[in-house]
Amino acid sequence: MSFETISLLLNWLEMGVMLAILFRLGHTFELIATTQHELRRAIHHLGESRAAEWRIADDSSKPVITQHARVDYGSTIGTDDLAGTSPGLSP
Description:
- The chain is mainly α.
- The chain has one domain (3-68).
- The chain is built from two helices and no strands.
- It has helices at residues 3-53, 79-82.
C-alpha cells in the first residue's frame, strides 16, 4: 500500500471516530436536558405541595397540623431553666 492510501484510510477512520464521539455526546446532552427537565418538574411539584402545608387554618378556622410543625422559639428551654434540675449547671 502506498502512503496516500494509508493516509486516506486513516483520515476516514478519524472521521468515523469523530462522528461516533459526536453521536455519543448528543445522547449525553439529551440525557442531561431530560434530567434537568424532570428535576424542574419535581421541584415545581414539591413547591406546590409545600405551599399546601403552610396553611394556618382550614375552612372551619381550626388550626391545621401539618407534617412539619412550626417551632415557637420563645418557649424553648434554656440553661437557666435547667439550673435547678441539673447538678453540673449553675446560673
